[in-house]
Amino acid sequence: MKRTIRFLPFAALILLGMNMCWHPLLNILDPEYQGIIYVSESGSRLNSGLQPTRPMKSISEAVDKAKSIGGTQVRVAQGEYEGGVNLHPGVSLLGGYAPDFSVRDWDLYESRIAGNETPDSYEGGIFVSGSDVTKDVVVEGLTFDFHVSGTPIESWHSYSVIGLCDGASPTIRNNRIRLHTGVGTNLSNPDWRFDVRGIGIHDYTSDSAFFDLVISNNDIWVKADGSPHRACGILIGPLSEGSHAMIEANRVVLKTYDNHTTGSSAAIAAQYQPHGVVLKNNVVRMRNESGDGGWGVDLDAVGAVVANNTIVCDGPIFGGLRSSDSSAAGAQVVNNILACDGSGTAVTGNSADYCDYNLFFNFTTWFSGGITGGGHSDTLSGVNFTEVFSSSLDGSVDDGDDTDYHLYDPAAIFAVDLGTNTNVAQYGDVAVDFEGDSRPQSAAFDRGADEKT
Predict the structure, then answer these.
(1) What confidence tens digit (pLDDT) does each residue in 302-343 have?
(2) DSSP secondary structure of 356-400
């Protein structure tokens, strides 16, 4: 009997030998492909990235490949990698995997994206852009560590470790972000400004664009030396009506020096009147060493919800919280703790804002702009931080904040069971605290990010 021998094309043999993926032959070349591309510090550009045993080396190249073949995830093993990643809608970036990808633990297996940048850079770690808001993007389990130094080269410039615009709907969670800027003044153009932020999110699309943003459980530290016009841990831009931005259970530390504009910097900020902004269960620390002060939280937003946050400021500051400005009103401010070391205004807002069941202590002024504290808030002076929290205030925050913001036992007279349970869903549904403990633990909600157990 005559035997027929069939030969694969030479190109296909090469692809098989290198275990690479070519979209039309995808199911033939790797029938077990699950939409995942693997990246390892010990990987190779010659590897396909389709199996844990053949990881790619570059996150950027892996993301581009995932987009080209319809992949949905890029998994990153322990190691150090370059930034400048353009992340596409529908492709998630997940870190914290063991070298063999058998286990995921982002505390044990750090996937670190790092670099030294200049003020002509826009995004250091990753940038998410794309008009398809129906495709979700998750960024999780990564460590970002960036240093920016030099002088501004344009009249107005901004830099984000994680940046987003043009229609994507991201979830950014369980990441560590470290940003240290040492940006000087351009002597030829001293008015040139440089904005820096850990996470910077903007919407530059049409009013019909719909966003669903989640920023949760991130540890963010930004130290801004020199001349930034505005430094922020998280900055939310002009989201369209119908959008949502959930900022939940983050720990955000901002340390500033000699910022140009009074009240411009803030640990968490929203600008250009975004809709649908909810802040709940965040621990916020704003420390200003010198020069013009800033805010703990600054919201130029429409109808923002600020519930069960702990906001602490020290040094010369402008205020703890600006809930709205004169043209963006309707904020709801409930169950928060705002503390200071004796400067600034506790809350600045509009008379249309609702503010009640909060604890304010050690500010120079309590309220301004028409907002009031309601009938159930407390304003206290001369309170020691250890009367409320489980440790004294970390005075340096040079590499994070070591303050323990759990409620201390004597805090029962200031914060425990003094929040509100009434219609809590309208305040952002704070059914758990910043560590996931259920609320309430006893008769009523506690104030602040911690529910005392």
Answers:
(1) 888 999 999 999 988 889 999 876 666 788 999 999 999 878
(2) ES-EEES-SEEEETT----SS-EEESS--GGGTBSSPPPS--BTB
The first and second tokens of residue 3, run together, are: 């035997």
- Reading the block at residue 15, the tokens are 């692809």
Q: From its phi and psi, is residue 174 left (phi > 0), alpha (psi between -120 and 50) or beta?
A: left
pTM for this entry: 0.89
Cα 55 from Cα 41, distance rounded (Å): 9
Strand order in the sheet with 305-307: 36-39, 73-77, 92-97, 136-140, 169-173, 212-216, 244-248, 277-280, 305-307, 332-334, 354-356
Q: Taken in order 409, 412, 413, 419, is the CA torsion positive or negative?
A: positive
Sequence-distant (6+) residues with CB within 8 A of 422 are: none
pLDDT average, residue stretch 121-148: 78
The encoded tokens of residue 424 equal 């809590």
Where in the chain are the domains? Answer: 110-427
Assigned token pair, 198 = 């850990």
For 177, residues 6+ apart whose C-beta sits below 8 A from its C-beta are: 125, 143, 144, 161, 162, 198, 199, 218, 219, 220, 221, 222
DSSP state of 292: B
User: Would you say 324 and 297 are in contact if contact means Cβ atoms under 8 Å apart?
Assistant: no
Cβ neighbourhood burial of 42 (10 Å; 0-12, 13-18, 19+): exposed
**Pair of tokens at residue 41:** 């510090």
Who contacts 417 (Cβ-Cβ below 8 Å, separation ≥6)?
440, 442, 443, 444, 445, 446
Report the Cα 368 to chain-centroid distance in Å. Answer: 28
Model pLDDT for residues 16-70, shown as the tens digit of each residue: 444 444 444 443 345 567 899 999 999 999 999 999 999 999 999 999 999 999 9
